[in-house]
Amino acid sequence: MDFATIMQYAGWPLIKIVILLIPVFTVVAYMVWFERRLLAFFQSRLGPNRVGPLGLIQPIADGLKLFLKEDLVPMNSRPFLFKIAPIFAFFPAFVGFAIVSWALPWVTPSGKVHPFVVADVDLGILFVLALSSLSIFGIILAGWSSGSKYPLFGSLRSASQMLAYEVPMTLSVVAVVLLAGSFRLSDIVAAQEKLGWYYLFPGILAFGVYLVSAVAESNRVPFDLPEGESEIIGFHTEYSGMRFAWYFVGEYANVTLISVLGTTMFLGGYDIPFVNDAALYAAHPELTSVLGVCAFAAKAALFAVFFIWIRATWPRYRYDQLLKIGWIVLLPIALANLVLVALLKLWLLR
Amino acid sequence: MAVNEQAEKVSPLREIMETREIELNLGPQHPATHGVYRALVRLDGERVLGMESVIGYLHRGIEKWAEYRTWQQATPIFDRLDYVGAVLNCHGYVGAVEKLLNVEVPKRAQYIRVILDELQRIASHLVWLGTHGLDIGAQSVLFYAIREREAIMDLFEAMLGQRLLPNAYPIGGVRFDFPKGWVEVCRQFLEIFPKRIDEYEGLLTGNRIWRQRTIGVGVISAKDAIALSLSGPTLRGSGVNFDVRKAIPYSSYEDFDFEIPLGQNGDVFDRYLCRVREMRQSVRIIKQALDGMPEGELRGKVGKIIRPPAGEAYYTIEAAKGQLGFYIVSDGSDKPFRVHVKSPSFVNLQGIETMCKGNLIADVVAVIGSLDIVLGEVDR
User: Fold this and answer.
1) CA B88, CA B105: separation in Å to the nearest integer?
2) Among the four residues A14, A103, B50, B312, which has the most C-beta atoms within 10 Å?
């Protein structure tokens, strides 16, 4: 094996992973700060504003505090499962970022093409869906191994909740795949660009279904049943310190990932709105890439604001009601939408 | 049950897949029990098969304590019963002593008491609204409700010198007249407050999720509610028209024109609506009292040392949680021989088993919130 091959299969991906992980970690940490501040403004409070300017050092202080806390393992627990469960919670969410295409590829002067993606997998979107179903194990294992009743309830809820939202969510994604004709995220963006419409419009029903099931997927209000802090305290009742922090980080990474995927599938990803990207790219490739990432971030931030907004506004659904919504409302809508999109594709959007 | 037994006999899986009831300790440290209330809940999955209330974690012996204080000294102790409705407790006790002493409270003092009582009722309902919303997951309402309660606390501070437990009334009347400018601030608050209630209702009353979570949940029929001797909004949510302010008017409540909001189904939603509407009625009462404020004395003829004649008295008022009764016995000395409190939270808590049976565990939390219990009053 020569140096070039090693670089192609190990070197570049590793460098890309590091380049990707740093901003992703930062974004996830500052999601917490952003949520707390925004939520506070919704609720006529100020939120964390003491540590650093505008409270910007708060996430670091929180992380440090959790890091220094004692790592408690309850006596009744199954220590091995209890200890590895948090890994399942944050790992899939972070891996999911690998397939996200962040901007149009960067072409070096020598003519080498560097796509802005760690791994442009053919079955990208399926890969993420498979991974995100894995994250449920973090919750189930936590509840099962804690040796306590409240976490057990949380994990049971989570297990049945997952069945209710995963199916409609997948069907809504299938509608997008049908429209784009590819599972690859960069192809989905390119197809939207070519169509001139974001899939938000032909796939408005799919977008709605995706949005609702995305909230359920990330265990947030109004579907935060596995946590349900005022009812069953949550699946992570027995966790402390860094192990708890991994659940926390995992949740916010999940929110970020879901926002990013939703942006890619329905809001055109790194496509810059109101601008002919192809023409701009031909003239100024670097500028287009930078602007593309900015547009991507701005669109994903809209998702995040939406998540926080509903958290400030809505009460929590009951467990049986969520199942009802999943099976009786979302699933038929997603199926009907699939048929609609197929017909649309057949007649109009060839 | 018979069907289940049969199924269990037939099923070969019974050996390996045994299902059983879970007994869950809800509390005493639980975020939704509003204090140190403990419920032993028997669960089949998440469905409640039965529950048992365990109370007494906040027992401070207040009634006994009062026997070692003089009649006046005992007043502030009763503020600590229902600590989010302290003024009303004080009114109950003071009223009972006045009844035993046969003191006429001057009209102006009665009106001032009505104003402070109703402000306290609003403050108490605001705390209930916020925490009830929080239990069901609507967290913003808490902060809006506390914001308005803060305005009431400021009014208390200006008039009584204390915010939470102001020891509002001495025996025989009220201690202070309104300070300068107080009435104007109060009127401003009364102007703003109904709009704020609209805001809360905008967040909750029409909200689909809120309605799904509360309508048809924790139902108690009028018959059961009366049999359990529930009172206050918990009783009126079931459609029973009983309010001490109307039924046995005290402190000049007969002078004011106000309505008693009633529910129909006796579910969590009806109790919620009753309380929210009650806040609007309280605003009406305060406005009338401020407009019709008579001139005159602040305190009736009460000596420095109070020695009520030997005997007993029962005095009852409509507190924020329901009917609050004080039964006092005097042996003619300067200390109470016995004080017994009929506290609404304690009585209302008896309804919880009827309301929760067959519901889900998430509903238990909603029901506890809708009962508006304060453990300081339950355990005393």
Assistant:
1) 16
2) A103
Is pLDDT above 90 for A15? no
Q: How many domains does chain A have?
A: 1
Closest CA to B203 of A126, A309, A71: A309
How far apart, in whole angstroms, are the C-alpha atoms of residue A286 and residue A276? 15
Please indicate, yes or no, if residue A7 is contained in any of the structural domains: no
Is the pLDDT at A241 greater than 50? The verdict is: yes
Q: How far apart are CA B143 and CA B152, in angstroms?
A: 15
CA angle B353, B356, B359 (to 5 degrees): 150
Residue-range definition of the domain harbouring residue A155 = 64-347
CA–CA gap between residue A145 and residue A150 (Å, rounded): 12
Shortest CB distance from B360 goes to which of A156, A311, A319? A319
Q: How far is A298 from chain B (nearest CA, A)?
A: 26
pLDDT for B14 equals 60
The pLDDT of residue B1 is above 50: no
Whether A242 is covered by a domain: the verdict is yes
CA distance B290 to A204: 56
| Chain B residue nearest residue A225, CA to CA | B362
pLDDT tens-place string over residues B267-322: 899 999 999 999 999 999 999 999 988 888 888 888 788 888 888 999 999 988 88
* Partner B contacted by A310 (CB < 8 A): no
Average pLDDT, chain A: 84
Contact flag A315-B137 (C-beta cutoff 8 Å): yes
pLDDT score for B194: 92
Asked if pLDDT for residue B9 goes beyond 60, the answer is: no
> Which of A157, A225, A211 has its CA nearest to residue A337?
A211
Burial letters A28-65, b for 16+ CB under 10 A, else e: bbebbbbbbbbbbebbeeebbeeeeeebeebbeebbee
ipTM: 0.83
If you average pLDDT over each of A83-92, A94-103, A267-276, B146-155, which comes out highest?
Answer: B146-155
Beta strands B336-342 and B22-26 are unpaired
Residue A50 lies in a domain: no
Distance CA A279, CA A4 (A): 32
B35 touches chain A (CB under 8 A): no
d(CA B251, CA A123): 76
Question: Does A1 reside within a domain?
Answer: no
The percentage of residues in chain A with a pLDDT greater than 90, rounded to a whole number, is 1
Q: How far is A312 from chain B (nearest CA, A)?
A: 6
* Angstrom distance (rounded) from CA A337 to CA A189: 20
d(CA B259, CA B281): 7
Task: Report how far residue A300's alpha carbon sits from residue A345's, in angstroms, rounded to the nearest whole number.
Answer: 27
Q: Pairing mode, if any, of strands B22-26 and B38-44?
A: antiparallel
Beta carbons of B363 and A318 less than 8 Å apart: yes
Test B138 with A321 for CB contact under 8 angstroms: no
Among B45, B204, B213, beta carbon nearest to A318? B213
Nearest residue in chain A measured CA to CA from B32: A230
Residue B359 binned pLDDT confidence (cut-offs 50, 70, 90)? confident
Residues in B closer than 8 angstroms to A317, CB to CB, are 209, 212-213
Between CA A278 and CA A283, with CA A279 as vertex, the angle to 5 degrees is 115
Please write the tens of the pLDDT for every residue from A280-322.
777 777 788 888 888 888 988 888 898 888 888 888 888 888 8
**Interface residue A160 vs chain B (CB under 8 A):** no
Residue appearing with tokens 């009844």: B99
Q: Which string of DSSP letters, residue by residue, matches B123-166?
A: HHHHHHHHHHHHHHT--HHHHHHHHHHHHHHHHHHHHHS-SSS-
Q: How far is residue B108's CA from residue B110's CA, in Å, rounded to a whole number?
A: 5
SS3 content of chain B, % helix, strand, coil (to 5): 50, 10, 40
Give me the sign of the Cα torsion angle B44, B45, B50, B52: positive
DSSP E strands: which ranges in chain B?
Answer: 22-26, 38-44, 47-54, 311-318, 323-330, 336-342
